[in-house]
Design a protein that fits this description.
- The chain is an alpha/beta fold and 224 residues long.
- The protein has one domain (2-221): Rossmann fold, CATH 3.40.50.1820.
- It is 40% helix and 11% strand.
- It has nine helices and six strands; from the N terminus they run βαβαβαβααβααβαα.
- Strands 2-1-3-4-5-6 form a six-stranded parallel β-sheet, sandwiched between helices.
- Strand 3, helix 3 (72-83) and strand 4 (92-95) form a beta-alpha-beta unit.
- It starts with a strand and ends with a helix.
């Protein structure tokens, strides 16, 4: 099992999810990568070659790895899969992926502070950027989108309902098997119990379960 965090985040942002997956019996590679220091194709090669090797060593070469991504991590996975079409994968869950980019990048791509904060990879995530050049998904994928925002100013820039950085519509992508919208924010969705339980549901069954309440999610994660 490979976890890939998003832009300007670290593996610590996925730690709660990693622990939940371990509790369910998954061997987890919570992979850190320097998201602001290189273009997406370079980040993808560096992160996923290493993570796949770790999975191969632990699970054996015949077991395709499952992958759970947050935000730009999903684009890294798609770029890597396009470059390595011969590789096999297990199930994939993408949380808040900018599969058609974000208007926030369009707005601030010439702003020096924005460029410094997000690096070359961040600048590739505009609405006419790298994500729209990628082919349909080659793996069994469930997508979780958020519908709440921590920043109304940024949400005003994004077209349609959004999670504060990425619109719900932008998370959708050709080839996905399932799509679910939850009342969570882009920044913290990977730590939300309802999201975590839905990640587990998709990895276990290849589908999401409708209407899992916050209380029900907490009970499952507590082992009740």
């Amino acid at each position: 099992m490979i976890l890939l965090h998003g832009l300007a985040r670290t593996d610590a942002s996925m730690a709660v999810l990693a622990q939940a997956l371990k509790s369910e019996g998954y061997y987890v590679i919570n992979h850190a990568y320097p998201s602001r220091q290189a273009p997406i194709d370079i980040l993808a090669e560096t992160a996923l070659l290493s993570a796949r090797e770790d999975c191969r060593t632990s699970s054996g070469p015949s077991v395709p790895p499952n992958v759970v991504t947050h935000s730009m991590g999903g684009i890294l996975l798609r770029v890597f899969a396009q470059a390595h079409p011969d590789l096999e994968w297990g199930r994939v869950v993408m949380m808040g992926p900018p599969n058609h980019g974000s208007e926030i990048v369009d707005m601030f791509e010439t702003n020096a502070a924005f460029v410094d904060a997000n690096g070359p990879a961040g600048l590739q995530l505009g609405t006419n950027g790298l994500p729209d050049t990628l082919p349909p998904l080659p793996f069994e994928t469930g997508v979780i989108a958020g519908s709440q925002s921590l920043n109304p100013l940024l949400s005003a820039i994004v077209e349609g309902e959004d999670d504060g950085k990425v619109s719900i519509e932008s998370t959708k992508v050709e080839g996905m098997k399932a799509h679910l919208t939850l009342p969570v924010t882009h920044t913290f969705m990977m730590q939300n119990p309802r999201v975590i339980v839905q990640v587990l549901n998709f990895l276990d069954t290849g589908t999401f379960v409708a209407d899992v309440s916050f209380a029900e999610a907490l009970r499952r994660l507590a082992g009740e």
